[in-house]
Design a protein that fits this description.
The chain has about 325 residues and is an alpha/beta fold. Helix content is about 35%, strand content about 15%.
Amino acid sequence: MTLPPRTLPHLFIVVDTEEEFDWSAPFSRTSTSVSAMRDIGLVQDIFDRFGSSPTYVIDYPVASKEEGYGGIVESASDGRCVIGAHLHPWVNPPFDEPVSNRNSFLCNLSPELQARKIDVLCDLIEERTGVRPRTFKAGRYGLGAATISALDASGFEVDTSINPFTDFSGEGGPDFREFDSQPLWLAHARQLLELPCTHGFVGVARRRGQTLRRLAEARVLRAMRAPGLLARGGIVDQVMLSPEGNTLSEMIALTRALLVDGVRTFTLSFHSPSVVPGHTPYVRTRADLEEFLRRVEGYLEFFFGEIRGVADTHEAFRRTLLVSEQTST
């Protein structure tokens, strides 16, 4: 879906609001602490200053503990955020599947089990927050055809699971290499809109980014550190619009490149445990946290100031899109 060229850039913010766990360890059903949510105000305060309402897609451990969802409910009641759903299969009942790397991708479970887990999560979120979630993001980007059908049947309006130009098939997950950062309709029956992660290429050869990165990721060239050489040489670098693992200059460069390509919808995303040092690989120290927060603030300054973008939420954008399409017909 290509929006009209004169469409202002729209920014959506997605926070994968989840439990803390060791990213280097096997998945476990017992790692369900949500203590980092005590400090979620560090980023909410930044969003408030810019008048931008994030979507907190919350998973089962967060929805099951007041320590996890309490602050978000307060912000949502003031219209300062939106509550969505995020599903980690290994900590989301019913637990009818063995815990494994493959089963950490929701799309690998049976269609029936996917639907049941989604329903259990949505019922809990509604019970604890008073909100029936309409925006969804699969943990580990584990979206598949059966997932889409289950979301459509459950009344979801927006999905944010697709991570363009990435391939998780080596771990048993989905392959999104054929997708870009443009919105698209996933299911027309109930009009499920996909607003994907913002992911793309920068550098002088960015239009051949997919091909060059595939070559560089080959075993022999990877051993020669070809991806890093391409990035440092300004030839091509793969960047995600996230303060986790990407510099502010990289996020700005990606935004400028995508604007040239006609993209008008941008999603800034990160994981909630990153607001406390030590919970994710991206924020290990207090200095890392300060830099992480500077990147968030710096990007918002750029987006709303320099390129005169507008803040939006997924569900509001979908409503506007539907009205526009109905008007045009």
